[in-house]
């Protein structure tokens, strides 16, 4: 009697064991808790339907705590199988510690350009450790109704840009441009990094700065500051105390005509505007008609593999899928403004998002100049750039003096810039 | 032969809770911080660097410029409190203690309430009031025909720190007021009556009789203000962010410490330099308090009633 029972128990355990082995559950660590619903409703069902036997558990933490929580989980060996990667140094450090697996041999890596992968590669580019998921593109949003009212066309060149601003200012109904300086990052990210690539020729200038053949005091790097200094006259009254949410509200309430920004605002703005006016987008203007345009297509989010994961094979299957066209299309449509970095163009429904992504066809993409390598030391180039951009717009520092100061700070710790 | 007194264990037992708690949450972290400032980051761990961090803080032009800027801003922040908060607090206390003032309890409560508000609320509310876009400050000035006086004060290098210092004064003026009010109430009526018989009334009574009697309280308030101001951080962080803009015009030691210790955006935190700044702050406050204790408090005359 007991023998039979034992046998039955043994058999059932074995059966259960095989069943569990078939169903692998992969846990995804992420800081995108805003995306929980999108993962559960769209992304996970699509993957699970195509790959029976692999279950995905999306387990996000709060953005501000993510890095700290992830690091301690990785150290303790309790982190999930898949790790959402921050760009550049934060993830590079994990790879160097051996906590992220090398994914260079993943077949879907072929779907991504070198620029797209640069945020998750070793400095020499020999190893890639995360599959790029999304980037954000800088540009200008504008109020289409206001432009129609005043008979204006979205500008293509710098001269047209200022002509449009002058016309809006002269009319006086709208604040020409919504931007403030107290938060500083608006000035740097949506100003300097938005229009800058046009002058330093995108990747060419960015790489030259890293290898030391160009300096921040070169004309290509000072000119964006000169442009920002001109913006001052077109900002609203009291822009020195206008915060980032103030700027957003000025635009969504229809009080400002142009808003220098990044594509991530599309998803935020559309429900706020609620059809009160139509929103359009134009790319950073070029110096002269017909010049090559450059856009900041900033790599922001990727997915990597925990090197200690017991389910590496299943995780790789999932990562291949994340690198596929299907995932790109699902993700980009669920989150308008977060663009897939996949080289194959993605069909998107949102017209403003389509406009942003269409610039990729003619313009050269680059990433924010200060993010790779150049912000490893003290003083931190990114933070200094915030301060310098805000000063230049406020008119408290000349573009030349600001550039000089940045160069001095960078040269004080960065070898290739010392001489 | 007189027997030696038994060791009085109960003293140790009664002191133990306070000593243990204070040691655990104050002394040990303090020593830990001082200790941390003597180390530096190196390949695979930390190494003892002696006073090298202090040499960097005071010797490296970048670090020292930032440090002296923060210290000067902090000194200005303190000066505004001493020149505005404490005199206004004394004046309010003098008015409140006047027996002819009606609704004194209401004024006392109303003026004290901001003190118990959170910094987050105060910073946010004042930022909104002073906002050039949605704020009520431009509208109110417009109503009295003084619109031209309005400027985005929080966004200008010349005015941001003073504005924030005044916001802080607004918040904390209740504390000197309450302390001085209590001191004024404790002046015996006989002293006041004697003064009145001698013909000392009104303002001269305040200057000649009451002020000397409340001087010790003013001394305590000054030192409390000093310690609070040199440890300040919250209001600046809430209203101007960790970068203490515009162009570090509102950067005080607290925000400088925060940025260095915890890092900011792409800048990684540096606990060793952070601890160095914390140690420097500790030194500054220690010196300030010692000056008060040994140079001022010992000379204050005490009156016995």
From TrEMBL, chain A:
Localization per record: Periplasm
A biological process term (GO) from this entry: transmembrane transport
GO cellular component, one term: periplasmic space
Residues annotated as signal peptide: 1-21
One protein family per Pfam: SBP_bac_1
Role, per record: Part of a binding-protein-dependent transport system for a sugar.
Classification via PANTHER family: ARABINOSE-BINDING PROTEIN-RELATED, BINDING PROTEIN COMPONENT OF ABC SUGAR TRANSPORTER-RELATED
Family: Belongs to the bacterial solute-binding protein 1 family.
The protein's name: Probable sugar-binding periplasmic protein
Species classification: Bacteria, Pseudomonadati, Pseudomonadota, Alphaproteobacteria, Rhodobacterales
TrEMBL record, chain B:
Membrane topology: Multi-pass membrane protein
Gene Ontology annotations for the cellular component aspect, listed alphabetically: plasma membrane
Keyword Cell membrane in annotation: yes
Gene Ontology BP terms: transmembrane transport
UniProt KW keywords: Cell membrane, Membrane, Transmembrane, Transmembrane helix, Transport
Pfam family, one: BPD_transp_1
Listed Gene3D superfamilies: MetI-like
TM annotation in the entry: 12-31, 75-96, 105-126, 161-184, 213-236, 274-295
Compartments (UniProt record): Cell membrane
Main location group: membrane
Record domain ABC transmembrane type-1: where: 71-294
Domain of life: Bacteria
Keyword Transmembrane helix belongs to the record: yes
PROSITE patterns: ABC_TM1
Protein family according to the UniProt entry: Belongs to the binding-protein-dependent transport system permease family.
Record-given protein name: Sugar ABC transporter permease
């Amino acid at each position: 009697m007991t023998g039979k029972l034992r046998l039955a128990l043994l058999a059932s355990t074995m059966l259960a064991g095989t069943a569990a082995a078939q169903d692998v559950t992969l846990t995804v660590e992420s800081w995108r808790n805003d995306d929980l619903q999108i993962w559960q409703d769209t992304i996970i069902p699509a993957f699970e339907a195509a790959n029976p036997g692999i279950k995905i558990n999306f387990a996000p933490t709060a953005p501000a705590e993510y890095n700290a929580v992830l690091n301690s989980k990785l150290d303790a060996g309790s982190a999930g199988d898949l790790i959402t990667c921050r760009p550049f140094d934060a993830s590079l450090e994990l790879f160097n510690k051996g906590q992220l697996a090398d994914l260079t041999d993943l077949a879907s890596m072929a779907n991504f350009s070198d620029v797209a992968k640069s945020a998750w590669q070793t400095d020499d580019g020999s190893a890639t450790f995360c599959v790029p998921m999304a980037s954000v593109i800088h540009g200008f949003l504008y109020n289409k109704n206001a432009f129609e009212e005043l008979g204006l066309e979205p500008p293509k060149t710098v001269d047209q840009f200022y002509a449009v601003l002058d016309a809006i200012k002269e009319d006086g109904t709208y604040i020409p441009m919504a931007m403030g300086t107290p938060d500083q990052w608006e000035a740097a990210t949506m100003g300097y990094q938005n229009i800058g690539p046009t002058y330093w020729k995108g990747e060419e200038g960015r790489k030259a700065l890293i290898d030391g053949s160009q300096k921040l005091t070169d004309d290509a790097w000072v000119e964006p500051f000169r442009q920002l200094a001109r913006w001052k006259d077109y900002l609203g009254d009291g822009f020195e105390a206008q915060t980032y949410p103030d700027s957003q509200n000025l635009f969504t309430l229809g009080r400002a005509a142009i808003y220098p920004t990044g594509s991530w605002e599309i998803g935020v703005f559309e429900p706020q505007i609620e059809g009160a006016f139509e929103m359009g987008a134009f790319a950073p203007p070029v110096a002269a008609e017909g010049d090559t345009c450059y856009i900041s297509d900033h790599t922001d989010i990727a997915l990597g593999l925990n090197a200690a994961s017991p389910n590496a094979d299943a995780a790789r299957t999932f990562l291949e899928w994340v690198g596929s066209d299907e995932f790109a299309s699902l993700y980009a449509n669920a989150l308008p403004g977060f663009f897939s970095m996949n080289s194959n163009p993605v069909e998107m429904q949102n017209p403003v998002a389509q406009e942003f992504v269409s610039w990729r066809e003619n313009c050269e993409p680059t990433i924010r100049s200060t993010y790779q390598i150049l912000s490893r030391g003290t003083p931190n180039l990114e933070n200094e750039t915030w301060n310098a951009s805000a000063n230049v717009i406020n008119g408290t520092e000349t573009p030349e003096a600001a550039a000089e100061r940045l160069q001095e700070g960078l040269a004080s710790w960065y070898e290739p810039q010392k001489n | 032969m007189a027997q030696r007194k038994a060791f009085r264990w109960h003293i140790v037992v009664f002191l133990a809770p306070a000593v243990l708690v204070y040691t655990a949450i104050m002394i040990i972290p303090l020593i830990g911080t001082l200790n941390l400032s003597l180390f530096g980051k190196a390949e695979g761990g930390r190494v003892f660097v002696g006073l090298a961090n202090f040499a960097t803080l005071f010797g490296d032009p970048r670090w020292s410029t930032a440090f002296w800027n923060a210290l000067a801003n902090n000194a200005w922040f303190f000066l505004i409190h001493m020149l505005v908060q404490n005199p206004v607090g004394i004046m309010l206390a003098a008015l409140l203690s006047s027996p002819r003032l009606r609704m004194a309890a209401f004024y006392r409560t109303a003026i004290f309430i901001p003190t118990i508000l959170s910094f987050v609320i105060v910073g946010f509310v004042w930022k909104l009031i002073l906002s050039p876009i949605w704020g009520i400050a431009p509208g109110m000035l417009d109503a009295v025909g003084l619109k031209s006086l309005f400027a985005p004060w929080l966004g200008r290098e010349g005015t941001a720190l003073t504005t924030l210092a005044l916001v802080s004064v607004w918040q904390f003026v209740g504390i000197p007021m309450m302390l001085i009010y209590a001191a004024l109430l404790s002046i015996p009526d006989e002293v006041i009556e004697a003064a009145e018989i001698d013909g000392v009334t009104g303002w001269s009574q305040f200057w000649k009789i009451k002020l000397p009697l409340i001087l010790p309280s003013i001394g305590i308030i000054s030192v409390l203000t000093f310690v609070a101001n040199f440890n300040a951080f919250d209001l600046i962080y809430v209203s101007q962010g960790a970068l203490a803009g515009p162009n570090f015009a509102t950067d005080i030691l607290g925000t400088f410490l925060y940025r260095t210790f915890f890092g900011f955006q792409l800048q990684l935190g540096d606990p060793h330099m952070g601890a160095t700044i914390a140690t420097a702050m500790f030194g500054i406050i220690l010196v300030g308090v010692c000056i008060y204790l040994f140079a001022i408090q010992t000379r204050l005359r005490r009156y016995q009633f």
